[in-house]
Amino acid sequence: MNLFFQQIINGLTLGSIYGLVALGLTLVYGILHIPNFAHGALYMVGAFMSYFFMTDLGMHYWIAMAGSAAVVAVLAILCERLVFHPLRNSPPIHDKIAAIGILLFLEAVVQMFWGSDFRRLSSPFTGIMNFDGLIIPEQRLLIIVGAFALVIALQLFLRKTMTGATIIAMAQSREGAFLVGIDANRVAMMTFAISGVLAAVAASLYAPINLVYPAMGHLVIMKAFVIIILGGMGSIPGAIAGGMIIGFAEAFGGFYISTAYKDIIAFGLLVLILSVRPQGLFAKGAH
Amino acid sequence: MLFKLGSLLMKPGAKMALLAFALVFPFLAANEYQVYVMASAFVWAIAVYGLNIITGYCGQLNLAHGGFFAIGAYTLGLLTADAGWSFWPAFVAALVMTAVLGFFVGIVSLRLKEHYFAIFTLCVGFIIYLLIDKWEELTHGPIGVRDIAAPSGFGLVDFTETTPFYYLVLAFLVFSIWFMGRLSRSLLGRTFIAIRNGDELAQSLGINLMRNKVLAFVLSTTYAGLAGALYAGMVRFIGPEEANINHTFDMITYLLVGGIGTLTGPLLGTVGIVWITQSLQFLEEYRMIIFGPLLVILVIFFPRGITGQFLTWMHHKAQSLAPGKKQKASKVQTASAREAENNA
């Protein structure tokens, strides 16, 4: 029973991280219809920025996370301005290739400064909480609580504020948004900034129980893509639900089936689902 | 006449000069290592030609291409090293293997469009990598495959030497380009281009989308398998890293620099970048600091790569040379020149 409970905690932790990364990806897709392959690189840069602020500048964990979120947000805005904006009228294949270019560039830059070694980010939350024999490491609890808080904050921002409403409007209908005078550039930059913040926070939360290295974004971004396909590209609830599905599938699959193949589970699931339903699980109508 | 100017690179003379250069290259090279580098550039070029079929002509960004390259390499490697086959039967088996797997991946993945297809193939590429890395009973996992047979020369040639192997690769490359040229001028090649230019329009012309896309996909994976098998025969030692997604990204860079959807582009891009990387050895690890932004700049400013840009430039020059023509005639020429670019 205890082991089963551990897997639930693992699933929730993984699901929270995947959900946050997928949320950023799905927001960008909803607005600009770009599958941003560079999103995993933003996630990786977020982890390295937190690492840099904490180990080299001696900042506190929370301040480092905020600093990293700010840096990655600016980086994401730069990507939008310098790369995706000039490509807005190009064939879709160009966006994808440009995103791959950004990904390769960011990885090479990080590798130049920090090398390809594996590093560990230390967190002040190293304790273990014990609820009547049910053991939860503090960092995992922090991830779950942090992710939920962030998702709720994002929802409130999108639903209750005017600026948030412009993002929703743009995702629903580009032309409609233009008609009521919404500034497309501003919305695009804001969406990229939000996706950058989500990626940086997810990376900073997850790094203490994982490792920090230049290729750390690869698996995460691919799983995030699997998630947004499952959840319907551009759908926010879909990203969260999909994140949890993949998180739990991995936690339980890794424990009960095979640890070596646990990374294949997400992709196998995707292949299986797309073979049966090419439009994804929750998507309304085919793309 | 303008048509001919616009497609200078298609001229038999230019082609013959390139071929002659490739034939005498081993005698011009300063050392054996340079021949080896050129041979490996040719191997990659063959794979890039495959990517050009599905991505350049048919317009579907296939991110599993490096995975199929690795499948070709592993099929040959495992059959010769573990099952004791000799090179040529294993070589044919590698081609058949990649074609068959390409068919099955194709019929599933090509039901998806654009982004979905790219993401799906990205995942397929990763599954291939993970399987090679984890399925230790079959692939030896991270240890890799050693003692892969070199191509047997039937007692006439020794392909373990660099120079004979170079000519073997060159022969396959020439065949690949020739086949590609035939393909791009055939009805089938035009069908692929029609699909790239517009799914629905192509369908309304009576083109069977699924059948043609799967055919393009199988052709491209077979090219990847051919390159992979040659690669395994050349380096004789392979590991899971052959399936690394970075190989696919490298090939996309080669294709884009050379000119996507052109006939000479994959060759120019691959050989050019391989040599630039070689001459900047110290950059090996950090080359992406240059090539990453290069990719972005290319798709923004020169989406057609070296070859495409050159052809456009030649075409403009040709147009300015003949200002007195009737407008109608120049329109026809524009159309035909564009077609030449498509096919070049």
TrEMBL record, chain A:
Protein name: Amino acid/amide ABC transporter membrane protein 1 (HAAT family)
GO terms for cellular component: plasma membrane
Family in the record: Belongs to the binding-protein-dependent transport system permease family. LivHM subfamily.
Family annotation (InterPro entries): ABC_transp_permease, BCAA_transport_permease
Membrane topology, record value: Multi-pass membrane protein
Intracellular or extracellular location(s): Cell inner membrane
Organism: Marinobacter pelagius
Keywords: Amino-acid transport, Cell membrane, Membrane, Transmembrane, Transmembrane helix, Transport
Gene Ontology molecular-function annotations: transmembrane transporter activity
Regions crossing the membrane: 12-31, 61-84, 96-114, 141-158, 187-213, 225-249, 255-274
From TrEMBL, chain B:
Alphabetical list of InterPro entries matching this protein: ABC_transp_permease, LivM-like
Main location: membrane
Segments passing through the bilayer: 12-29, 35-54, 61-81, 87-108, 115-132, 164-181, 214-239, 251-276, 288-306
Highest taxon listed in the record's lineage: Bacteria
Keywords for the protein's UniProt record, in alphabetical order: Cell membrane, Membrane, Transmembrane, Transmembrane helix
Membrane topology: Multi-pass membrane protein
GO MF terms held by the record: branched-chain amino acid transmembrane transporter activity
Subcellular location, record wording: Cell inner membrane
Ubl conjugation is among the record's keywords: no
Gene Ontology terms: cellular component: plasma membrane
Keyword Transmembrane: yes
Signal peptide, first to last residue: none
Pfam families: BPD_transp_2
Protein name: Amino acid/amide ABC transporter membrane protein 2 (HAAT family)
Phylogenetic placement of the source organism: Bacteria, Pseudomonadati, Pseudomonadota, Gammaproteobacteria, Pseudomonadales
